[in-house]
Amino acid sequence: MAVQHGWLRGRRPAPYVDIQYRFILRYKIPSRHYFSRTVVPELYEAMRGELVQSLKAAEGGVINLTTDLWTSNHNAHAYLCLTGHWCERVGEASVQRKAGPLNVGVLDIEHTSNNILCCLKEKMREWDESVGQSVTIQFVLSDNAANMVKALTEYGHIHCVSHTLHLVVIKALEKARVVTSLFSKARSISGHVHRSSKASNRLHELQTQLNLPQHTLITDIKTRWNYMFYLLQQLVEQRRAVQIMTQESNMGRAPRIICPNEWRLVSDMLTILSPFEEVTQAISKQSASLSEVIPLLHGLCSIIRSLHVGGLAAGEESEDESDQFMAGDDDQDATVGLGQDVAAESREMLGTAARKLAANLSRELEWRFEPIFANSTFLLATLLDPRYKASCFPNNVDVEALKRTLLLRMELCDPVATPARNTEETPATSSTSVLSFLQKKKSAIPMRTHLPSGDVEAYLADGDISLTDDPVKYWSGKLQCWPNLTRFALQHLSCPLTSVQSERVFSTAGNVVSPQRANLDPSHVEQLVFIKVNADLKNSVGLFEP
User: Could you tell me which residue ranges the HAT C-terminal dimerisation domain spans (predicted)?
Assistant: First the structure.
């Protein structure tokens, strides 16, 4: 029997223990209504007040928005999220980039463009009243949904780069029958391991025997193309264990076997898709800015173009070749016993499939992102980023005309000369790293060092910063030197290039509106999500720091 305290065995407890015990007995736990009607609303209003103070200090009174729609599977309510992004003046010579959800309200009416626009205006009108001044919306980011695009036309609407990049990869992969067959097998293997405890245990046994990392195969997510990339990476990492597991006869309904030819295709695909994964990671960071779109896409397009140049043009691979390759998919030993000439021909066929995939990706990139390279908003944002300036533009960009546009928008009129630029194409590189490509191109563009006239030319002639430095910190040091140019630059640099942060808000909302709390009032959902997300942002990016 457990040892009992003295006061339980009949002995009088010490005075301080007696006082504590009586206090515990008299304490009454607040009801759930107290938390829902008092604690949560008070905390919500307190955090909202802090957000209002931060918005009052927004540079130039300008903010950018990301928005998204989400419908809960548990309470059948639809929610519209508005996340604000701005730069806050802290003191006389410091600026900090800020972000926070402004609204997670219910939108249970039909999701037409007009209804979405009316809801957005109503919510921003409420914030104008709270802040006590007009808050100017400069840019609004959303996905490519037609109702969203139409609703935000009157604002500076920007398509989510992450969503568009996802469409680029998915559409290119769907055009290659060999690739879709390979992904079908990869998903089958991963699903089999997740559904079968026997297969999962066998995989762990093989990982121990073969001294492989103890990783469980991830599940593919259709709305995130990079999860397919990670799945292929894991299959390559666990190749020996996966081969043994799928060949064993005692595995029941084992998934289809990946043949040796397809393993080479997997390796080729990882090489081709690694730049896309690098760009996806870069644009999904909380610190990612609109100024990074053109440099990253320019580097990505150049690398993917170099991977298929010299190979077969898209469409040269005949349907017969594809069918011949796919006919041997289920036979792992299809190439065993064949002559060297036949094996070489098979390898060449796989190389052709990989180059065709690269060509499809290149065409999708150019088709979906071509308007961006002529968009003055993106061009100006890149020009005003001290990491890039004019060094990472495609060679067909007229920097002189871009500078005139900048001067007009800033109400300046001093015509000045442009920094010297290299008019030759950037040499082809064997590296598939976008960051390495940009670093090489940046170092190949010399900048003039003479003292020019005008803020814009002074900025362009100023010393460059590293690609890993913070551009907002750079402009903080220029507040006294170039106040108008600094304000204009910060309004662009505070704008993200994806709607990821609004989507992350809905990840939190999905945890709040769980099956056990499906009857939560929508107003309580908004308050709980607002408190949770703003608390996370406060801890991660310094939101509302005193």
Answer: 457-532
Question: For residue range 331-358, what is the model confidence (pLDDT) as tens digits?
Answer: 333 333 334 443 344 334 447 888 888 8
CA distance 273 to 228: 10
Task: Please give the Cα distance from 14 to 36 (Å, whole number).
Answer: 39
Q: Write down how long the chain is.
A: 546
For residue 101, what are the β-bridge partners? 83
Q: How far is CA 292 from CA 108, 300, 380, 444, 490, in A?
A: 36, 12, 11, 19, 14
How far CA 178 is from CA of 173, 225, 329, 352, in Å, comes to: 9, 17, 9, 11
Domain topology for 57-159+499-541: Nucleotidyltransferase; domain 5 (3.30.420)
If we measure between CA atoms, which residue out of 58, 60, 129 comes closest to residue 98? 58
The pLDDT assigned to 90 comes to 81
Rounded CA-CA distance 209/485 in Å is 62
Best CA proximity match to 81, nearest among 10, 19, 157, 140: 140
Residues in contact with 476: Cβ distance below 8 Å, sequence separation at least 6, in sequence order:
93, 94, 95
Half-sphere exposure of 352 (CA within 13 A, CB side): 18
Q: Is the pLDDT of residue 219 over 80?
A: yes
Contact by Cβ (8 Å): 385, 493: yes
Q: Which helix (H) or strand (E) holds 80?
A: strand 78-89
- Of the candidates 105, 116, 39, 55, which has an alpha carbon nearest to the alpha carbon of residue 506? 105
Report d(CA 392, CA 12) in Å as an integer: 81
For 128-225, list the strands marked E by DSSP: 136-142, 156-159
Across 344-449, where does the E strand assignment appear?
A: none
- What is the four-CA torsion angle of 308, 310, 315, 320, rounded to 10 degrees? -100
pLDDT of residue 380 exceeding 60, the answer is yes
Average pLDDT over every residue of 40-58 = 90
Instruction: Evaluate whether 86 touches 53 at the Cβ level (below 8 Å).
Output: no
416/174 Cα distance (integer angstroms): 49
Q: Which of 62, 66, 71 is nearest to 81 (CA)?
A: 66
Beta bridge partners of 58: 88
What local confidence, expressed as pLDDT, does residue 396 receive? 84
Inform me whether the pLDDT recorded for 12 exceeds 60.
no
Type of residue at 255: P
* Cα-Cα-Cα-Cα dihedral sign, residues 121, 126, 128, 131: negative
| Residue-range domain boundaries for the chain | 57-159+499-541, 165-284+295-370, 375-493
Q: Helical H runs in 61-160? A: 113-131, 146-151
Three-state secondary structure of 455-470 = HHHHHHHCCCCCCCCC
In angstroms, the Cα distances linking 372 to 64, 160, 164, 192, 334 are 18, 12, 12, 42, 46
Whether the pTM exceeds 0.85: the reply is no
Q: 5: which 2 tokens?
A: 């305290």
